Amino acid sequence: MVARYKLFRSSYESWDTLCQQVTTFLTELGPERVIGVSQSHENTLGIFTVWYWDWEGENSPPAAA
Known about the structure:
alpha+beta; three-stranded antiparallel β-sheet; elongated
């Protein structure tokens, strides 16, 4: 397994919208794959980083149907 990240950022979406995007992604990942979530902001720019485990190579799980 390898660690990966996904950024969610916006200077025009509301904080509620950003949070909903993050929670949707976290739900799709499932708790066993989540490493952590960090949040930052500068002026009107909000950023969430989701850190998670991903499979790589031949040990990858089968694709979802």
